[in-house]
Predict the structure.
Amino acid sequence: MEADTPRILLAGNPNCGKTSIFNILAGLNQKVTNIPGTTVEKVSGTIKVNNKSYTLVDLPGAYSLFPKSEDELVAANEILNAKNDMIVFVADATRLESNLFYFSQIADLGIPIMLALNMVDLAQSKGIQIDIDALSQRLGVLVVPISALKSTGIDTLKNTIHKVVFPNQTPFYASFDNSGIAYPEFVEQQMLSNQEHLDENRKIDAGKRQRMIAEIIKTSVTRLPYKKRLVEKLDQLLIHPIWGIVIMLAVMTVIFQSVFMLAELPMQGIEWIFIKVGGFIKNALAPGFFNDMVVEGIISGLAGVVVFVPQIVILFFFIGLLEETGYITRISFLSDHFMRKFGLSGKSVIPMTGGLACAIPSIMAARTIENRAERLATIFIIPLMTCSARLPVYTLLISMLVPEDSYVWLFNTRGLVLMGMYLLGFVSALLFALIFRLFIKAKANHFFVLEMPELRPPRWRPLFYMLYRKSMMFLSGAGKVILIVSLILFLLKSFGPAGQMQQIKEQYATEYGNSLSPEIEQQQNAELLEASWIGKIGKIIEPAIKPLGYDWKIGIALTTSFAAREVFVGTMSAIYGLADDDEGVGLREMLQKQKDPTTGLSIYTFPVLISLLLFYAIALQCASTVAVVYKETKSIKYTLIQLVSMYGAAYFVCMAAYNLLS
Amino acid sequence: MAKALCELKKGEKATLKCVNNPQLELKMLEFGFVKGTTLTVTGCAPFGDPAIIECTCTKLILRKSETSQIMVEPQV
């Protein structure tokens, strides 16, 4: 950043439309920086007015200079500690009274400030008339009425920016109290003092400010009676204790189904592209280890990353839509009571619903929960929700468990068992939340005070910028870890202890010559897998997983499917030497034929299948999830606790189930 | 007769008297809930918790744990 570009901060309350204005002003010239130690993002951009460049920073929304959340802390630090040339304060014209409090605090710091009065059109339709000149005079700052939704007043705002370079405002509340210290010093004092112990002066100050604001409002704002708009009547329905919940469940169903179905085609497309690219490279490079590493390690690793993007985009599109319209706050309102019983918050509902499709975007979505304990609890339990990667595993296991034409009354038994697995996921998530609550207590003096925004039409532009940013964040963050894990798994698969794998290859070469038929090659691959390090790992962990009813072959599949649950099916096919495209019926029949070499009994018995189903329901078999959890919590300890407790729980539950059923 | 905000029914109006928790009082103050403000309960979630409390300037969602600490004087 150039030193001589003036720095302008965009400040305001949450939901005031700040980000829309930022997007209109900065366009695509934006840069996202993660504030170290927090999950808050700071977005900055460059704007040009009269051939002069300015750096524009979009601060997180806040209600007060004295921080209560991570967002507010970041905003306060930017305002107080950075060298700022000017602040554009964006206020929601329909809620001017409550917005002016934060404005008054910033104005008293002595930084040049102007007021952008957003949503003036909406205010008018609600009978709120604001005398711009009177307001400007009373506050001593320039006031520009705008509507970000209709993009009116933006040019005036731009042209006003260079007029406010010199401080011309009269202090809102010049001297604090009788002690005579100036406001900036008072703020500094308060920031340094113990936040738990409240200074009485803060309350006195706040009270005085609100009284002055009330005076100003009285002389510049008139409220006329107005007819309730259709939207407000709709809102009454949305927050209704019965109809509201019916609508909420319907919305959730639509979101879940969309993430599930709309992502299907693009995901297949991405897989297809990677298979083609992999095939092309395989042929282009000389055969050998390097070729295998690029194709099976890097390309398939990359595919495993990029394949999640459609789901991330779709889930975040809906979350963005819910946020933009203000509906998300209504969901929090309706579900808060139920969720709180489990140490969660009303805001946990959306990430948990998303978890039915994929834990990865959902864990990212838990950022919207301000309360840290509730956010951590939500992240903790999301992996237990039945994600789409479990489906191929469940489908295979259930098809072995239940005959095809079995019915309970009118319902297909397989479908019922699958439904039961979804229910199990949800119930175990709530149970884990309860246990989690015993260990992490919410901070005392945390209040649940949430502002209810107006219901309004969505603004599309900020929504699409957000989608772009989230996808990039995922690709650059979690992507790296997933790539590394799949490379490690590839190396474990390609190498084995001294010469054993080479020996198998030579044996096949002497027996069958250089060109192997597909069946023979599959057989060779199965033997190679057994001789590789990953095969050894399977054998090593066999004693540990024996109590769950698993043999070393399942052990291999458990190990490889740590990369992603659905890998289980592919690995099982590889172990039993089936062709890749024959994973359905062929694999099921093959598995059902397997007998224990010593006892001669079937391996995949009812207790084993149940045990496996439970294992995939509970264990954190997903490297990507672990990566995202670490990225979101920035805590190795938390990530490890989650990983260990879920594997631990899976182990004991499966052991209990296997032994009880045997 | 002053009573806690959580005892108000949907649609009832009341004047804000005092908040029994200084931290909460400050937070409410920052939202513009000054003593003497008229509050209306405009919505109740299932089991009456949380509730939507409206004053002229804004609408807040408050849990019972908070509304039980806010004392109001019902208006008739």
About this structure: Helices of chain B lie at 22-30, 64-67.
